[in-house]
Amino acid sequence: MRIANSEQVSNAIKHFRLDGQVLKCVPYGNGHINDTFRILCKLPDGGEKYYILQTVNSNVFKNPTEVMANIEKVTGYLRGIVKDPREVLSLVSTVKGDTYYIDDNGLCWRMYDFVNDSVCLDQPDIDEFYQCALAFGKFQKYLSNFPADTLFETIPDFHNTPKRYENFIKALEKDPLSRAESAKDEIEFVKSRKDFYGVLIENNKNGKLPLRVSHNDTKSNNVMLDESTHSALCVIDLDTIMPGFSVTDFGDAIRFGANTAAEDEKDLNKVNLDLDKFEVYTKGFLSGCGGELPDSEIMLLPEGAKMMTMEVGMRFLTDYLEGDTYFKTDYKDHNLVRCRTQFKLVTEMEKHWDEMKKIVKKYCRGN
Ligand code: ADP
Ligand code: GN1
Ligand code: MG
User: Fold this and answer.
1) Architecture of the domain whose range is 126-362
2) What is the spatial distance between Cα 132 and Cα 139, in angstroms, rounded to a whole number?
3) Percentage of the chain surpassing pLDDT 70?
4) Residue 261, Cα to own-chain centre: how many angstroms?
5) Which residues pair with 108 in a beta bridge?
6) Residue 280: predicted pLDDT
7) Of all atoms in ligand 1, which is nearest to the CA of residue 118?
8) Mean pLDDT of all residues in 51-59
9) What are the distances in angstroms from CA 80 to CA 75, 87, 143, 240?
10) I need a labelling partner for 318 at 20 to 30 A (CA). Which of 127, 272, 288, 342 fits?
11) CATH of 6-116 among 3.40.50.620, 3.30.200.20, 3.30.420.40, 3.90.1150.10
12) Which residues make up the CATH 3.90.1200.10 domain(s) of the chain?
């Protein structure tokens, strides 16, 4: 379901400083949160230029202006580090000189330069997945000296899995649409793993897992690759940049990209963990991080992968119980289907746990 209607879209466009005349505006991308549009403009010299227009979903981000403040700071900082302008998102300013526009309905809009000649992929092959790993690893490295305390927490407790579990239990107790009956096995799956959810937070407390500036939404379709070489260009979807853990950035990417099937595959026989992709991502991510991560953190990468798969599955299930109010859905049981896919992948990770640990150990340096 879209957040904005076409009148609101046309009105929003007028408030941004575009280099030409708008020819076309079409819905774009596969994100679950924001409304995204691609705009085509005719330039005065006859050429053409694309832009990306987005709403910031205020049901998800309670304070969109804080989201925009984070993005402005981080993209400005990254621009001082990278060489090619296509390596960092560029906000387009409004006619008033701001980085966002709030319309009369309170909707927050922003515009980006389109990353030209690029693609982003829902199901990358192994080489493309390596490129995504490099991009997210470098992103972590580039931001290692960024002043984390200047960032707003755009979604409080975003990857606090024990809190996510509490929210799941609350939704289950309310069960407003009486859907719990149709998800008995999935509910049991979540409850039976309750002791696992605090593992990363415990490792943070015991000093093995430091807070770092992280992306927090590392799906492969949040990286733009060069259209012709398929090498990594730019990390996008910066709404959730906040202090977080390296291993959850790693883990969410594995959840999405090392699954042998789509995030919402209905045939669970097709859902497996691709260990070759797991290894290639480990290699690419650590290489991108440039030796920043100590061995004790590297050894927790499998926990990050299982935690994120479990957590996102739990979030899909919670949203199903609450009546699909958070994630965009395409059909009635979409969130239930998505959660089943995640839980099958968790089962695969549990089966291959020792192999996952063995793989990450190969990349430790003995420190
Ligand atoms: P969501 O939070 O809904 O996932 P994203 O910011 O990831 O929103 O954008 C959705 C999709 O729009 C992306 O997966 C990508 O295909 C496309 N996109 C977003 N920003 C750009 C950009 N600057 N240049 C080209 N494509 C973009
Ligand atoms: C959402 O915005 P998008 O589609 O990249 C969600 C992530 C989930 C993901 C599941 C802000 O990501 O946390 O992991 O869906 N983003 C937010 O596909 O909640
Ligand atoms: Mg996205």
Assistant:
1) Alpha-Beta Complex (3.90)
2) 11
3) 99
4) 18
5) 56, 102
6) 98
7) 25
8) 94
9) 9, 11, 11, 21
10) 272
11) 3.30.200.20
12) 126-362
Ligand nearest to the Cα of 251, by number: 2
Average pLDDT, the chain: 96
Task: Please tell me the residue having the least CA distance from ligand 2 atom 13.
Answer: 217
Could you identify the atom of ligand 1 that is nearest to the CA of residue 28? 12
- pLDDT (tens digit per residue) in 224-271: 999 999 999 999 999 999 999 999 999 999 999 999 999 999 999 999
Q: Quick one: pLDDT band at residue 200, thresholds 50, 70, 90? A: very high
- The pTM score is 0.96
User: What's the helix, strand, coil split of the chain in %, to 5?
Assistant: 45, 15, 40
Dmax over CA atoms of the chain, in Å, equals 63
Could you identify the residue written with the tokens 């466009």?
13
Angle at Cα 34 formed by Cα 30 and Cα 38, nearest 5°?
A: 65
Ligand 1, atom 11, residue with closest C-alpha: 29
Query: What residue ranges of the chain are covered by domains with CATH 3.30.200.20?
Result: 6-116
- Give the Cα separation of 301 and 154 in Å (integer): 24
Q: Is the CB of 33 under 6 A from ligand 2?
A: yes
